[in-house]
Design a protein that fits this description.
membrane, transmembrane transporter activity, single chain, Nitrate/nitrite transporter NarK, MFS_trans_sf, transmembrane helix
Length: 420
């Protein structure tokens, strides 16, 4: 099997320099696809609230429904995409279908017009594409780098992905400026068309440059519902899934963080999108270095330090600090939190999962974390409404501290595992 030579005494380097270079090329190809696709996605995400509320005059209730579909449609679809990819042993094909579906959805926004129901269907299709492609893509990364370099591999990929997230809103602003429209439907239509064209380029790059790693056909029954249940019975996978759910409960959502910043500093609405740009800038600068650090000193310590940075963000929102120091420290810590946790969790998962069920296992971990994140956001919104923002963010900060302790107890190497 592909990973069977990593770390063996008769192959101390794990892989030849030539093989390592080839696999790094596959990681870079996947990163380029994500970069281009994120430019397309973030172009739409950046203007979607303005388009729906100001352009199409949707009510807040209708916008809340559409936004819920946009953010919550991926959790169970990750499971489907992961299992199908392992079953047919075509991770690239399943990921490509997801990328293609999201690209076509951009044109669907043009056809939807002002119908809230049609827009909801189109956005659900877009999120369906994201849900189908995420686990196969991350599984390909774990199969395209040696185990001791998974932190670097995911760090490089997430850094390239965040370049797209950083550039997307800026491209959207540029398109609106080029067509001479800031809120007119014609300007939004231009963004949707441009977004589709960019997404199509991403699909083309995937087809031309990403290589699938199919390996030998696994024995009959290796990829089956019974095998998935057996995988979840494994103590390592079970502890990782529980830790992912616990950590997901600590993340309140970018929107809440930015709204709290806006409330604290009275930011003009026009500057609001730049808060996400600041976070993405810190993310793209730190993802690769922190991935390499995780490979060197341990992935669990780096990930737990990342959640320590999330607690720092919450504390900063409660602190008397104001002005530019607040923005620099808060957005910098928030971007560093993502850089230290997003890819690192997948790097922790990779070695625990057999190759035949790699995509399914990753999708289960991602889905558990996504569902916990959804619950956390809902509970935080209720806490804000009932108790006020200060109390809600204080509870969130305490929750992060408890989650760090629980995660350490769950994932710290057991004595038997160390001596085995």
């Amino acid at each position: 099997m592909y990973l069977s030579t990593i770390g063996r005494k008769d192959n101390p380097g794990g892989l030849s320099r030539r093989s390592l270079g080839a696999m790094s090329g596959n990681v870079l190809a996947l990163g380029t696809v994500s970069l281009v696709t994120d430019i397309s996605s973030e172009m739409v995400t950046a203007i979607l609230p303005v388009y729906l509320v100001l352009g199409l005059h949707l009510s807040p209730a209708a916008y809340g429904l559409v936004d819920g579909l946009y953010t919550g449609a991926t959790a169970f679809l990750r499971l489907i995409g992961g299992y199908v990819a392992d079953r047919v042993r075509r991770r690239k094909a399943v990921a490509g279908f997801g990328y293609g579906l999201s690209a076509v959805a951009k044109l669907g926004l043009l056809a939807a017009g002002s119908s809230a129901a049609a827009i909801g269907v189109v956005l659900t299709a877009d999120r369906t594409g994201k849900g189908l492609r995420t686990a196969p893509r991350d599984a390909l990364i774990t199969l395209s780098a040696p185990e001791d370099m998974l932190g670097r591999a995911f760090g490089v990929h997430r850094a390239m992905d965040s370049v797209g997230a950083f550039a997307g809103p800026l491209v959207a602003v540029g398109v609106l400026a080029a067509v001479g429209s800031s809120t007119g439907v014609g300007g939004f239509d231009a963004i949707f068309v441009t977004s589709f064209c960019i997404a199509a380029i991403g699909v083309l790059l995937l087809c031309l440059f990403v290589r699938d790693r199919r390996g030998p056909r696994p024995p009959a029954g290796t990829v089956s519902p019974r095998a998935v249940v057996a995988l979840l019975r494994g103590p390592g996978v079970r502890r990782l899934l529980l830790a992912a759910c616990v950590l997901g409960m600590t993340t309140i959502g970018d929107g809440f963080v930015y709204l709290l910043l806006q409330r604290k500093e009275d930011i003009a609405t026009g500057w609001f999108p730049l808060l996400a740009v600041g976070t993405n800038l810190a993310y793209l600068l730190l993802a690769a270095p922190l991935g390499a650090l995780a490979d060197r000193v341990g992935r669990l310590p780096v990930m737990l330090c990342g959640y320590g940075l999330l607690a720092t963000v919450y504390v900063l929102l409660l602190s008397p600090i104001s002005g530019w120091p607040l923005f620099v420290f808060t957005l910098g810590c928030y971007g560093a939190f993502y850089a230290a946790t997003d890819g690192i969790l997948m790097a922790l998962a990779g070695p625990l999962l057999p190759e035949a069920l790699r995509t399914t296992g990753i999708s289960i971990v991602q889905s558990g974390q996504a569902l916990s994140y959804f619950v956390s956001s809902v509970l935080f919104g209720l806490a804000w409404q009932v108790w006020g923002a200060g109390t809600a963010i204080t509870v969130a900060a305490c929750t992060v501290g408890a989650a760090i302790v629980i995660t350490f107890l769950l994932l710290a190497p057991r004595r038997k595992e160390v001596t085995a």
